[in-house]
Write a structure and sequence with these properties.
With 195 residues, this protein is α/β, with parallel strands linked by helices. The chain has a single domain, classed as Vaccinia Virus protein VP39 (Rossmann fold, 3-Layer(aba) Sandwich). Helices cover 29% and strands 27% of the residues. Strands 3-2-1-4-5-9-8 form a seven-stranded mixed beta sheet, sandwiched between helices. Strands 6-7 form a two-stranded antiparallel ribbon. A hairpin with a 6-residue loop joins strand 6 and strand 7. The longest helix is centred in the middle third of the chain and has 14 residues. The N and C termini lie far apart (41 Å). The chain binds S-adenosylmethionine. S-adenosylmethionine (SAM) binds next to strand 2. S-adenosylmethionine binds next to strand 2.
Amino acid sequence: MDKSNGYENIAKRFIQIRGEEIDGIGTSSVRNWIKSIPQNSTMLDLGCGTGIPITKVLVENKMKVYAIDASPTLISEFQKNLPYIPVECKAVENSEFFNIKFDAIIAWGLIFLLTSDNQVKLLQKIGNSLNPGGKFLFTAPKQKTEWTDILTNRKSRSLGAEKYKQILSKNDLTVIQEFKDEGENYYFETTKIRN
Ligand SMILES: C[S@@+](CC[C@H](N)C(=O)[O-])C[C@H]1O[C@@H](n2cnc3c(N)ncnc32)[C@H](O)[C@@H]1O
């Protein structure tokens, strides 16, 4: 059964339009974010796709990266692009990587593909697996909204900034910055409170 929310079906097309663009949309924002994270930090990329462009930025910045994606075709491309990076072909909902403690986690273009319940559960797992002071960056529209993904034809949904902040704070995560990139993607930059 497909756990990739339709991405496995359109993987070849996704590789052409996103997975070969080294400086694709979002890379400058991620490069900027990563400046605040020390080299050698342990990082997790959720919904990594082919690893290009986002995971590659993490690797180039000398992070110890783990990655997960549920599309076998995209994972096989990832393994060609970034052969030495530990990667799991699984739904983020069932990943074993959440047993590891991370200094930073990124979810670019993923959260809003999940059902509302699974978004809440995932944010909880992220909060649990981050070290105190750890960073979490994710994209999702600021407004609460639902729409049809133009590539997969599946429904996506943002819970909206207010709801995300409530869920994040229940999981010891605080939003430190919100911003948009050149592709109009909206980012929530968060950090886990230190106990
Ligand atoms: C919009 S793409 C973003 C990919 C990548 N982060 C990038 O910037 O190119 C969403 C990705 O999430 C993956 N995905 C969707 N649902 C997933 C799930 N439940 N668990 C793991 N990966 C999932 C898809 O296979 C796809 O690679």
